[in-house]
Each structure stands twice: as structure tokens, then as C-alpha cells.
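2024-03-11 09:14:02 INFO queue: dequeued item Thiamine pyrimidine synthase, len=371
2024-03-11 09:14:02 INFO validating residues
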Amino acid sequence: MKKRMKRILCMLLTASLAVGAFVGCGESQKETTSTAENEKKEELTSKDIIEKAAKDGKVGNWGLGNEYEVLALLAKYDLPTDFLSQDFTMDGFDDDSITLASAMTYNELGLVKNDYEGGYGYKDTVEYIDMNDEGVAMLEDNIFCSKDFAKENPETVAAFLYASFKGWEYAVENPKEAAQICYEYGSSVSKEHQEYMADEVAKLVSTDTKGEKVSDIGNMDEDAMKQTLDIAKKYVSLDDADANEKFQNLTLDDIRDTSFYEKAQASDGKFNVEKKKVSIQLKWLPDAQFMGYYVALDKGYYKEVGFEDVNIVSGGGDIAETTAVNNNTVDFGVTWETNLASADASGMNLVEIAQIFQRSGLVLVYKPENY
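2024-03-11 09:14:37 INFO prediction written
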């Protein structure tokens, strides 16, 4: 009986070891598979991500002039230059109808990541493809005026730049305070999002397309501006044939004047302004995207250089900033290089006098689990 019992115990022990070995093997296999999957995901390049989204037909953009970098990126990888029309929420990204969605680092990306009002709360579980890293960056916010205004009011132009640069410098160094100032001037977004925006906008002002620090606010980088114009010429198509031909023949010297930037940078802050009351129209509603101007106004920097009043006009209305400047409704405007070049080719007489954003703020955001 004892021998039989011992044999049974041995059999149970053997069976137990066999099961344990099998389970252990299974767990090991699971770990190996999981590790392999993770390594595969880690090995995915931006090209892999872009190709899959493009082939699935799930690349999104708003259009309206924001699409040229996306088109250049798709063309870079020999992919069809089609994209889904994306609305001004990130709902399409949230429900996976768009798996590679356009986002500005200082706006939509913050809404995707954060869980404050209007946010989607993905935190750091999302990743993105940066247009600067991909070599297809196009420059955004600049300061411009009409060529006639610049010629007739050179001291006014230089003084406005000097004070604006001072405001931008302070805002970059003190983004939280700048965000509060924007909020008090009638921000179009929440205080929490305003603070997020200010941090991100500061990076666009102080870092170039290569990721290097920029010491001078408003610098007009030759290579970045040329890249912007070159990409625009590939993808912008104006309705009028003559305007389209003119656009293709534009050079940087046709659309920019560095002399006012240089005068402002070299100045001691003393100017004899020809016009004491001036205005600037923004490209969009009041928020930290334009914090330098609000800081300059709030801190009295415009008054220091001789202005009695500076009116900051909200954008996003019926009259575009290029039209408003061209017809003398306002003196200065904030726009993108591509918009200004298109406007000049269409018969306007505008000139860029400073480049505030030194790198592109456009990224394509995605959920790693979709790849």
C-alpha cells in the first residue's frame, strides 16, 4: 500500500512538474512574443507610420492653406497626396476615423494630451511626427505691412518692431505671466490652455527648424524662408493664371525687407515715429499665439518708443489680415509667408518685416497602438 501511495505521489509530482514546465514555457513564450511586438513597434519609423496611415486613407488636415506641409511630406515618401478633411476639433482623432491627424503644437496637441476643459486627456500615450524633423517645415507667424507704409513711415515701422521684439522676449522668458496677460485681454481659450499655449509658442519663437536656439527675436532665416517659398510654389495654385505665373517667379527679395529688422535690432530704443497711433491685425482670435504684442502693450513698451496708442485687432473675421493691411484698415498684420506671397502675386503690395515663429508648429499626431 505504501509503495502504491508513493508511486501515486511520484506520478502526481511528475504531472505537476510537467504542467509547471508547460505553463512556464507558455509564459516565457508570451513574454517573448510581447517583447518582439514591442521591439517591432519601437523599430517603426516615421515613414512606416505615414505610409500605413496614407494607405489606409486616414491622414487628416484642415486645408485652408495648412495642407502644404502635409502634401510635401506625403510626396517625400512617394505616397498619394490625398488627405481627409479634418474639422477644428480632434474628434476624428479620438474615434480613430483619422489615425494621423494634423495638430498645432501650441493648440490641438495640447487638447489631445491634456484633460482640462475641452481636452481629450491622452497625456503622453500619443506620439507625433514633426514637420521640422521631416525637412518640410514652412514658416508661420510673421509681422508685415504694406510697402508704401514702410517707405513713408520708416521710424514707425522700426519702433513697432523694437517694442514688439521686447514684448516677445519678455513673453518667451516669462510664459506663465504672458499667458495671464493674454487671458486678461480677452483670451478665446481657458486659462489652463492659455498657459500650455504660451509654453509651446515660446519654443517656436526661440528655436529654429533645425532645433537650434535663436538669440534674436524676429530673425529672418534665409534657408527656412526659402524652403517655405519653394514648397509653396509646388503646391499653391492661384485661380488667376497671371497671378499664378507671378507667384512662381517670386523671390524672397520680392516679399521681405530685412532693413527694418536690422534697424530695430541695432537701436537704443529712441525713435521719431511718424505715426503715433497704429494698429495690428492678428491672424486669429486673442490668445498666447500672439502673446508678444499683448505683453508689449501691457508693459508699456509701445509707449516707450513713442506710440500714444496701439490697437491690437482680432483676426478670424470677414476681412483677412492681408486685405486689411493692403487697404489701410490697419497698419501692421500677422500672417504666414505663404499667405503674403500669394497676396502679392494676386496684386497686393505687402512686405514681411520680421519673422516671429522660427519653426513650424504643425505636427501629425497618432496613437502608437494603431501601428
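2024-03-11 09:14:37 INFO annotate: The beta strands are 59-61, 84-85, 100-104, 127-130, 142-146, 277-281, 309-313, 332-335, 350-355, 362-366.
2024-03-11 09:14:38 INFO item closed
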